[in-house]
Amino acid sequence: MARKETAADAANAGRLKQIALTYKMTRKADKTIGLVLAAVGIGTLGVFLAIGFLVGHPVYLGIFGLLIALLATAIVFGRRAERAAFGQMEGQPGAAAAVLDNIGRGWTTTPAVTMNRSQDVVHRAVGKAGIVLVAEGNPNRVKTLLAAEKKKMNRIVADVPVHDLIVGSGEGQVELKKLRTTMLKLPRVLTGPQVTATNDRLRALGDLMSNMPLPKGPMPKGMKLPKGGPRGR
């Protein structure tokens, strides 16, 4: 019994620590977060208390209002924390890959399936919507990468639809904060077994990192890397 209580206390302490850390990180990008949360909580509780006094049940509605105020504050905090996180990730290399890793069940993601020397990169996600190629980098350069990757996909899985998205804030691009929503809105055209079969056929391709000809283990003395470095596919 004592062990269970200790584990529960540790879990609660870890959760509170995580909330505090999230709040600190959010406050760096959103200076008004404290005032906003206070206004939401106090305002919501105040409304229920006022209704309680009007109907003659301030205690009951006060308790209910407190619960609703906590829930409303948590919802607002979560949304503003998410917005702040996306704001900090915007423009950072690999930001799209981080979003894809958290897209949810039913998707298999492979980061950096192709890249060029300018570090423009294309990631791949496979789900019931088919294959989605997500590019981040210079819009003009990534179009070439996307075209080459789509051509490769059409050779290997010609019967699977291939979508392409470019992360950015320009015309025809998808903002980082809307990437997950955009992908989840794509029409589902594949069944579970078809998704599995597609992943099996693509697994033979590997990804950019696994295909790079880098030796395993420590580099022998006197050995030098070839000039120009590794090239993207």
Automatic annotation (TrEMBL):
KW Membrane (keyword) present: yes
Pfam families registered for this protein in UniProt: DUF4191
Provenance organism: Streptomyces capoamus
InterPro entries found in the cross-reference section: DUF4191
Low complexity bias spans: 219-233
Keyword Transcription regulation: no
The entry's keywords: Membrane, Transmembrane, Transmembrane helix
Region Disordered, residue ranges: 210-233
Residues passing through the membrane, by range: 33-53, 59-78
Protein name: Membrane protein
